[in-house]
Automatic annotation (TrEMBL):
It comes from the Bacteria. Its cofactor is FAD. Residues 194-325, 600-727 form the Acyl-CoA dehydrogenase/oxidase C-terminal domain. This is Acyl-CoA dehydrogenase. Residues 473-552 form the Acyl-CoA oxidase/dehydrogenase middle domain.
Amino acid sequence: MNFDLTDEQEMMRDTFARFLDDNSSTARVRKALENGGFDAELWEGLAELGAFAMRVSEEAGGMGLGLLDAAVLMEEAGRTLVSGPLAEALVATSLLARLGGQDELLENAIAGASVVTIAMHDVAEFPKQWVAGGLVADAVVARKGNDIVLVSVPEEARVAEPNLATTPIAELDLGALPSTVLASGDDALAAFASGLEEWKLLMAVALSGLSRAALMMAAEYAGERKAFGVFIGTFQALSHPMADLICEIDSSKFLAWRAMRSIADGQTEAGAQISLSIWYAAGAAGRTVRHAVQTFGGIGLTTEHDIHLYNLRAKAWPLIAGDPEDWLAEAGRRLYAGETTSLPDVGELAIEFDLGEDARAIQKEIHEFFAKNVTDEQREKFHFSWEGHNPVIHKQLVEANLAYLQLPKDVGGRGLDPYAVTAARDAFEEEGWTNPVAGVAQMVALIMYRFGTDELKRDVLSKVMSGDAICSLGYSEPGCGSDVFAAKCKATQQEDGSWLIDGTKMWTSGANLTDYVLMLCRTDPDAPKHKGLTMFIVPLKAEGVTVQAVHTFMDERTNVTFYDNVRIPDTWRLGPINGGGRTMAASLELEHGGGFAKVQRAMLEDAEELCGEIKVTGGGKLIDTPKAQARLARTYANVLASEMIAYRANWTQVHGKGNGAYGPMAKMFSSELFITDSRDLLDLTAPHSLSKRKGAADAINLAYRHAHGTTIYGGTSQVHRSMIAEKGLGLPRSRN
C-alpha cells in the first residue's frame, strides 16, 4: 500500500505551489475578476512551467506525464482558486495531440498563447451551451454526432455575462461557429469520452484542494476569534462539523485516486468510481464552503473577505457540466445497468491500495479454517455481538494461531501488520464471525503482558492466551458515558495489601460470558480525575460480583455489573497505583483505525440482493430502477470512502507518517456513514426490510439497528469529532 507521491511529484507540487502562491493569491484572483475571471499572465506562467504539456505525449511535443501528475497540479490549482479553465485546457490539449492535425494550435496551446477548452455536451443535440473558458477560448474541442470537431471561436462570439463566481464561462452557439472535423468514428468518440472522464477526475481533485483551503481558513479563524470570552473553536457546533468535513474532503481526493488505481488495474468498477469521485467532491465542497462562511459569521458574507471567493467557485466549477446528481445516477447505471464508458490512460501510478500477499494469505487461511471446522448449525448462531461467541470455535482459532492476529509475537500473538489485520477482518466478516471476543482479549492480554505480575501472567494471562478464558472491559460507569476518567468505582487497599472493589460499571458487554474484567478504579479520590485511577484485573465469578442484563434493540445484550467488597490480591493490579491512565494507553497500540467498512460492504451486498428480488409496478425488479441504482451507488461510494480513510490510517501507522487523528477519523466517519446508509437502504427496500425473516431483509433490518451502536461504543462520534478537530485541524480543546 502506498499513499505517497513520488519524489518527482513532490518536487512538481512544490514548484507549482510556490508559483501559485505568488501568482494566484486572492489579491490576484480579485484582480482577475475585472477581466471576467481570467488571468492571462498566470496562464502564461503556467505554460512556462509545462502545465499544458503535461498530458501531451512526448511524440507530440509534450511531457507525457500521468494523470496523477496532472491531479497534483489541480489540487494546488483548487487551493489557490486558479483564474482560468485549467482542467478543461489540460484535457483539450491532450485531445488535440491524440487526434492530430492541429500542430500549430497545439503548439500555441502548450505555450499558453492560445486557450483551448472543451464542450461538455454533444453539439448535434445542444448547439448552444455553456462552455468553461468560453469567454477567452480561441477554440473548443467538442463532439458533434459521430465526429469530434474543433470549433473556432472568433472574438465577437465571446460575450461576457455576469455569472455566479465571475469565471470566464460563456454561452456559445457552437453549432453556428466554424468548425473542423478532427476525427470520426468509434475511436474518435472513445478518445473524447475518455477526455470527459479525465476532466471529472481532475475537477474532483481540484475541489478537494479548494475545500481543504477553505476549511483550514475557517479552522484558523475559529482558533483566534473569541465570543463570550472563549475561542469559538471550542464551540462543538462549529468544530464537530469541521471534523466531519475534513473526512469528506480527504475522501473526495482518495476516491479520485482510487478510481485512477482501478483504471490502471483494469477493474470493472473504474467507470462508476470516476462518476462517484466528482459527485462526492462536488457535494463535499458545497458543504465545506457553506460551513466556512458560517464560521466567519457576518464578515464571511462580505465581498471584502476572501472566503466568499471559495464559496462561489466551489459551486461554479463543477456546475459547468450540469447537475452533480446526474453523476450519481450515471454511477448507478455503470454499476447496475451495464453502462460502459471509455477510460483515460492514467500512465504510471505509484499510489497503491492493495493490501499485499500476506493479507491474501491470511484471508485464505481463515476461509480454509471455517470450511474445515465450522458447521452450518454453528453458523446459524453467529452474531456480531458477544452473544455470537462460541467457545469451541474460539479455542480452535487460538490453537490455529488465528485468534490474536494483532497481538505482538512476544506476547504470543500472530504479530500481523495492519494491512493483514484489515484483510483478516474482512475475511471474518465474510464468514460471519464478527463478535468482539478475540479483539478485547488481545487488548487485555497486552496490558497484562506489559504491566502484570508474574502471578497474574501465570494465573490469568496463560488462560487467555490458551483460549480457556475471555475478558470484558470495565471502563464506563452510570453517568460517565465516554468520560472514562470520571470513574467513581473505587478500589481501597487493605492492610494485607489486597484491594476491595466497590461500585458499578455500565456497558460491561460480555460480562455474562467472560471470566475476567479489565477495570479502571478510583484509588485516590482527592487527586485530579485523570491521575487518581488504577487498573486491575477482576474475576467476574468472584463473590460480590453481580451481573445484570441490559438488552438493546440491536439484538445485542450488554450488562451493568455491581461490585460489593470484591477482594483481589495486589498481584492483580496492572501498573502503578494512580497510573491507570498510562496503563490503559498501552492498549492503543492495537488500534489500527479499522472502522466499519467491512460491515458497510456486507450491508450493501445484502441490499443489492434484496433489490434484485423485490418486484416493482409494471414488471421488473427494484434494482432495475434508476432510484435504486443511484442509492445503491451512493452507499458504494461511502463504502469506498470508509475503506480509503481506514487504509490511510493503516498506512500512516506502518510507515510512521504521524497522526492527524487518522484512527478516530476511520472509526467516526465509517460509523456515521453506516448509520446514514442503513437508514436509507431500510427505506429503499421497504416494506420488505421490516421483516426479520432469515435472509437479506433480516440482514438489512439488523444492519439498521446495529449501526446505531457503532456510533456509541468504543467512544462516541462526538468524542472522536473533538479529537479530530483538535489533532487534525488544530482547533482549541472543546472538552474540560
